[in-house]
Amino acid sequence: MITMSSTRSRKLVLFFAISCLLLHEICTDASVCKESERKALLEFKHSLQATVFSGNDALFWISEECCLWRGVYCNSFTGYVEMLDFSYQPLVVAGTISPSLLKLHHLTSLNFSSNDFNGSLIPEFFGSLKKLKLLDLSNANFRGPIPSLLGNLSMLETLRLGGNGRVFNVGKLEWLSHLSRLKEVDLSFTNLSNANDWSQVISHLPLLQKLSLRHCDLPSISSSSLSIANSSTSLTYLDLSDNNLPSSAIYPWLFNVSSNLVSLNLSSNRLKGPIPEAFGNMMAIQELYLSDNLLILAENQVWGDSVLNEIEKLPDFMVLDLGYNLLNGSISKSIGQLSNLQVLRLAGNSFDGDVISEAHFSNFTYLQKLDLSYTSLTLKLNSRWTPPFQLTQIMLCSCKLGPHFPDWIRTQMGILTPDHYISYVEYLDISASGISDSLPYWFWGSFHGLKYINMSFNQISGTFPNNSIHISHLDPSSNNFSGPLTRFSLDYNMGTINLSKNKFTGSVSPICNFTGAVFLTLFDLSNNLFSGVVPDCFGSFPFLTALNLGDNSFSGSLPSSLRSLISLEMLSLRGNKFSGVLPSSLQNCAKLKFLALSDNELSGEIPMWIGQKLSSLVFLSLQGNQFRGRIPHQLCGLKYLQILDLSVNKISGTIPPCLNNSLPWQKK
Ligand SMILES: *[C@@H]1O[C@H](CO)[C@@H](O)[C@H](O)[C@H]1NC(C)=O
Ligand SMILES: *[C@@H]1O[C@H](CO)[C@@H](O)[C@H](O)[C@H]1NC(C)=O
Ligand SMILES: *[C@@H]1O[C@H](CO)[C@@H](O)[C@H](O)[C@H]1NC(C)=O
Ligand SMILES: *[C@@H]1O[C@H](CO)[C@@H](O)[C@H](O)[C@H]1NC(C)=O
Ligand SMILES: *[C@@H]1O[C@H](CO)[C@@H](O)[C@H](O)[C@H]1NC(C)=O
Ligand SMILES: *[C@@H]1O[C@H](CO)[C@@H](O)[C@H](O)[C@H]1NC(C)=O
Ligand SMILES: *[C@@H]1O[C@H](CO)[C@@H](O)[C@H](O)[C@H]1NC(C)=O
Ligand SMILES: *[C@@H]1O[C@H](CO)[C@@H](O)[C@H](O)[C@H]1NC(C)=O
Ligand SMILES: *[C@@H]1O[C@H](CO)[C@@H](O)[C@H](O)[C@H]1NC(C)=O
Ligand SMILES: *[C@@H]1O[C@H](CO)[C@@H](O)[C@H](O)[C@H]1NC(C)=O
Ligand SMILES: *[C@@H]1O[C@H](CO)[C@@H](O)[C@H](O)[C@H]1NC(C)=O
Ligand SMILES: *[C@@H]1O[C@H](CO)[C@@H](O)[C@H](O)[C@H]1NC(C)=O
Fold it and tell me: Which residues form the Leucine-rich repeat-containing N-terminal plant-type domain (predicted)?
């Protein structure tokens, strides 16, 4: 050790420092923390009164070595604190932030993102953290206004204040114009309704690359305030979506700052009229989101003969989202020239009567997401067609696909790519698409666990497979499916299964063998031919919010495990042959708003706990049963009740006076 050359030992120090950075949590030996900074940090910790610090873990700011504390990052040579990052774990802060942070003279990066500062003001002293290059206070529950002293942070390159809520009124943005080194600004989901200087300020940030002003109530730019001459053209990413801005407020400015734009989101504004051909001059553009506007095609324009002719010159164009506008007419085959397209979304426009053929798609080698929902387009594709693409999302709701089941979907169900990954469609929506056919034999055979399948509102027949189906959302409702209930295996995301309005038969005992039942929130078996006793297996469905077994032929008593459905808001058992009394276990379902038990053979008295325990009820129907005795006055406790139907029972006595005639209820 003693003979070690100084170069060698420097290398060792460097190695040690790097490994400590990488293995921040297990490095224990480096003692580099400055005592003054340690004190300042402790003062800061104390001021926050934050809950997360209450652990015993040395990482929670207890040990001597403050450079090893969670969220504290020191320069590995000097030992000065350079970065504080609390985004790793949410703090819930009760106190105020101590200005002791000012003693960290080398602080360049402060990330408080995704914590909860309980609506406190952004401290003014942040404006004196002169060396800051990065300040991220996004999604941290801060309150406005933004102290204009932040305009003193002249080194700042990244500023994120987004997601703090609309109460966060930013006011004017003049202070921002002093931050000439800014590369990224995110003020999304704040209230900028008073910042009528925003476009001017932004135009004068010469290095700005990324700007997010989504959902900010942005005021319109008045043309007199435009100072176009000096606009920054460094912008590559721009999100002005969801601001209700008219074209006149965006276009003049936009087309002067857009020469380097790569991604542009103008969705959910009031862009009106023909799509300007100037979009075709954005030579770097890759992603264009223009959905939810009022765009039309100019008179006599056909798709591809105008805008697309411009866009097709753009070599890297990958995302085209024109969903939910007022486009009509027909889609030209020249859309196929966008040969690098990965996402195509034309949903919610009315191309009524127009036909899409294989020719339209022949160049879409890279297409991943296709959304033509609600366009009334007819997809005329040969059953032997092999698409050039492998989609992950197919959204063709209310297109005309039928009457035959679209065979080309088979090619999308899963392949082995050159990288040996199986890539397959995750999202398939072919609902209401005029299919009148049997489900092809290959469907379940090539099934690799789609997350979402919607085939509802067709006339598809067939049975479900014997082995279990792995899924998050399955909606084959309103078809002609038959056969027994299959076992489902729910994916680790909250899911829904809706088998209603089919011809499924037999017992529902497979529900006892669902795996991942804990992830199911909606389960609808209504309007089928199921029969028998409902098994007592609801203990495994704690997050179910809607259960519909209505209009089948179930018999026997209600399973007492219904008690476990503590999240349930909707329960319909109507139109069956359930008998016996209402199990008192039902009073555990305290969140019930909708309870329909009509047209069964239930008997006994109406339990008084309905009025006491099910206090959220809005709809209660016991109509068409064998209930007898008096109406319990406890029903008066149901203060949200709007519909009460007790008709066609054997109820006697008087009507409690609270149930007055102003309610739209029926009685016996
Ligand atoms: C702050 O931390 C979050 C979570 O680690 C991260 O996603 C975000 O990019 C960080 N902010 C900045 C500006 O780097
Ligand atoms: C949040 O602030 C409110 C006052 O605005 C206070 O009553 C409440 O106790 C605070 N919550 C926490 C967790 O400190
Ligand atoms: C902010 O900068 C101004 C000059 O631009 C200076 O007068 C003021 O003292 C600074 N404020 C703080 C808190 O550093
Ligand atoms: C935004 O701020 C303006 C002006 O202070 C206010 O009138 C408006 O209600 C705020 N918007 C929201 C959504 O809070
Ligand atoms: C544009 O920039 C030039 C040189 O940087 C400056 O002299 C001029 O005042 C600027 N014009 C406007 C309208 O900001
Ligand atoms: C574009 O903006 C819309 C509306 O704010 C949003 O829903 C969508 O996710 C955005 N798209 C991207 C890719 O950020
Ligand atoms: C920039 O704006 C000016 C004035 O509105 C306009 O004449 C010019 O064509 C615009 N430049 C581009 C590239 O759109
Ligand atoms: C498109 O809609 C406009 C009115 O919005 C109408 O005048 C025009 O005839 C429509 N074009 C076609 C081809 O349907
Ligand atoms: C497909 O791409 C080739 C080469 O870029 C082009 O010549 C052809 O016209 C394109 N086809 C369609 C249907 O756009
Ligand atoms: C399936 O599509 C129909 C419309 O075609 C829609 O009403 C239904 O909500 C969708 N189901 C799911 C689970 O998203
Ligand atoms: C389902 O399984 C049963 C018994 O295991 C078998 O008899 C039947 O043929 C299977 N049905 C299908 C459609 O595979
Ligand atoms: C289904 O569950 C029942 C009871 O939980 C069990 O006896 C039966 O073996 C299970 N069946 C299958 C196919 O897993």
Answer: 36-75
